[in-house]
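From the pipeline queue, job 12 of 40. The input is one protein chain; the requested action is below.

Action: predict structure.
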Amino acid sequence: MVRTNVQTLKNTKNFKTFLLTSSVNGEGKTVTSINLAISLAHDLNNKSVLLVDADMRKGKMARYLGLHHSPGLSEILKGEVEADACFVAQDIENLTVICSGKTPKNPSELLNSKRMAQLIASLKARFDYIIIDTPPVMPLTDACILGPLVDGVMMVVQAGRTQRGLVQHAQSRLHQAHANLIGCVMTNVEYHLPQYLYRYVHEYGTYAYKEESVNS
């Protein structure tokens, strides 16, 4: 669903850069960013995807993907390396990653620099999709700084955990920063299926598993 919406925005409005954030920590934004990037890279139309970890304080992407976090975004923004030196190719075709880099003393200032705006513009010309993972909106300003520089911002909200007031406050901060908030992504959602539909899904899943076993 999220991939389809992103692809539609690309095709209808030429949106290419998407930022994912959350109201507070622990809502699954990094995993959602990774899954979205992988899903887009699997597109049959052979589109190039860049995944960027812009959480230079507590970036987790390198650990999740089994990569070295440096050199990365912080080194690029400090002018120590060129962006190409930080590209990490994945086993997944069409997917490239830029990790967060070493934690700098001034993450917000680096994100608010002219070099960051120039970096996004240059990368936008080289990739079909750019997915940027940022720190939560509260209490940090990073997502609000980057929001106006991208085509669309998505809020990741964990069902059953995140308080509505926090989400509304985070959305308000993004709007005040003139970010283009295009929607929310719910995580940890439980689906309660009617009994007849559950039985169908269960039987179909068993059938598919048996077919796979026979063909292997």
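Job complete. Residues 191-216 have pLDDT under 50 and may be disordered.
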